[in-house]
Amino acid sequence: MCLSHGNIARRSVLAAGLALPLAAVTGTAEAAPAGPFAIVGARIFDGRRVIECGTVVVDAGRIVAVHEGAVHEGAGPRGLPVHDGRGKTLLPGLIDGHVHHTGPDRTDAPRFGVTTELDMVSDPAAHGPIRRQRRSYAPTPLSDLWTAGWWATVPGGWGTDSGLVFPLMEPGTDPAEFVAARQAEGSDHLKLALEDVHLITGARIPVLSETQVRGLIAAAKRHRMPSVAHATRQDMARTALSAGITGLVHLFSDAEIADDVVRLAVRGGAFVTPTLTLWSALGSLQNPATKSVITDPRVAPFLSAKQRGFLDAPWGFERPGVLETASRNVAKLHAAGVPITAGTDSGIPGIAHGVSLLVELELLVRAGLAPVEALAAATSTPASHYGFTDRGRIARGLRADLVLVDGDPTRDITALRDVSAVWRNGAPVTRAV
Ligand SMILES: [Zn+2]
């Protein structure tokens, strides 16, 4: 029981020189002001472990205190507005490890608790505002972005028919110069496109050679940039892993994962972002995993027209079995200790910002992750692999990107559908659309 007359709270809360009348705990149910305020009496998943009952104090966009233990009558942060967390679970703002968009309207993700997104291709013209925003602690309804900038592909390769004009890895291009140019443009990570569209059209297109892949990954390492690969075939993933890629931002579904590929991932310390949501959308026109989430009355009223537009867009074909194969591959990697991070590929048909990360986490649990492992896959795990020091956990000094949900997603991941409140930089996010 979170609210009690125990002594733990008196010790821990008073240690911070704060005192809160119990009456205040029952007071405010609405979103609290930008700060200071306290979220009291919630179960806390801090990104790594579960605190069954605690209090989090927020001020000026940051978490200023985390107290473990039950709230004691007469003890608490004196005079602070209080958000009642009883019966609820507080989580770090979620991180979507694979999205597409750099536009100014990024409100869809935070309304579902996704406060940070990792974009996987962008025009460098957008990089300045994106960087300024993520350094700021001012209230904002927008997600924070990290971006790949232009990805590495070859003439006639993946993305070259998009209408965009961008630098390519020509046969004579020096990989070191290519990576240096991306870093100078403000790319946060280097994205390698290893895609021959075998799943989409069956007609193969050119891809980066093994020599180019090795050169690009080695150059990214020298520039201290994470390198990530879009690889939808096992042989391409094997090449990237053997060259020392930081992470795979899809998990292939063309084959059962081979033992040597698992070993390469383990030995290289690579993380894997499976994007099961994508495989679910490609595997079946019915896409039951997404349907069950977006028709849930706890979710449906909060979907914007833009989200519905993506979710209702048809692929027009299906590739039965890809979700099942990718899910078995997740299970093998997870059992071998390979870090799994959650990502959706939002910004393409069948997948929408924010809400689709809830689908991804449910699919990761179905693939064999425990609910707390799935929650770590969307918080502390990507934060550590991408080097984020201000987010991904609930701890003193970190950015106050927080999600409060009804129920206990550390036991039942579907509780994430029941978002009660979201804060970006300590300011409440409006969920209504
Ligand atoms: Zn993508």
Automatic annotation (TrEMBL):
<keyword id="KW-0732">Signal</keyword>
<dbReference type="InterPro" id="IPR006311">
    <property type="entry name" value="TAT_signal"/>
</dbReference>
<dbReference type="GO" id="GO:0016810">
    <property type="term" value="F:hydrolase activity, acting on carbon-nitrogen (but not peptide) bonds"/>
</dbReference>
<dbReference type="InterPro" id="IPR032466">
    <property type="entry name" value="Metal_Hydrolase"/>
</dbReference>
<dbReference type="InterPro" id="IPR011059">
    <property type="entry name" value="Metal-dep_hydrolase_composite"/>
</dbReference>
<feature type="signal peptide">
    <location>
        <begin position="1"/>
        <end position="31"/>
    </location>
</feature>
<protein>
    <submittedName>
        <fullName>Imidazolonepropionase</fullName>
    </submittedName>
</protein>
<feature type="domain" description="Amidohydrolase-related">
    <location>
        <begin position="207"/>
        <end position="426"/>
    </location>
</feature>
<dbReference type="InterPro" id="IPR006680">
    <property type="entry name" value="Amidohydro-rel"/>
</dbReference>
<dbReference type="Pfam" id="PF01979">
    <property type="entry name" value="Amidohydro_1"/>
</dbReference>
<dbReference type="InterPro" id="IPR051781">
    <property type="entry name" value="Metallo-dep_Hydrolase"/>
</dbReference>
